Predict the structure of Type III secretion system LEE gatekeeper SepL.
Amino acid sequence: MANGIEFNQNPASVFNSNSLDFELESQQLTQKNSSNISSPLINLQNELAMITSSSLSETIEGLSLGYRKGSARKEEEGSTIEKLLNDMQELLTLTDSDKIKELSLKNSGLLEQHDPTLAMFGNMPKGEIVALISSLLQSKFVKIELKKKYARLLLDLLGEDDWELALLSWLGVGELNQEGIQKIKKLYEKAKDEDSENGASLLDWFMEIKDLPEREKHLKVIIRALSFDLSYMSSFEDKVKTSSIIS
């Protein structure tokens, strides 16, 4: 893994001017996600939505992936956001790093942006945007102030629905429209519900996926998502069930 996101330069909050807006957005995202089916992937969204702008302002300066500098107090303040971004980074490690490098080189002009916005990415798939911004945040060639702006964009993206499966889908399959991502989400949720009250079975699941184009890639995406869930499960029964599906 690269050195990570480093914001250990001179403190200068970048979120204060939008603190009220961000707090309102956080509350709306929390309400929107509260009705979702619980899973470690979806829980990431909910946790992100509950982070207030004041928390971000206090911790963004000392944030790094992989290691932290500073006092024990700052380490405690940054632990929540650091964990969330580490979780996102863990998803990126599930793919060939050459694909991320190629993406970064192709979009090297983004390093020259002074005021980046999501609109400048145009119709680029959401998963590809998450991967690209993440790679920029790891780059040693991106200035600290620009990293802070891209970090805000990334946090906005991670508050949206289905960013995890969108990222895994892009990494594993390539460019997919929203319909394609929803199809993977449906299969992923059906795999999780195997042997549930709905009466679903792995046989039914495989019959549904067998005719998909590039089904091996689709399967790999779903297995990676389930594997990511598995690493966060505390219930022994859930671990056994998910392990059996992956196997």
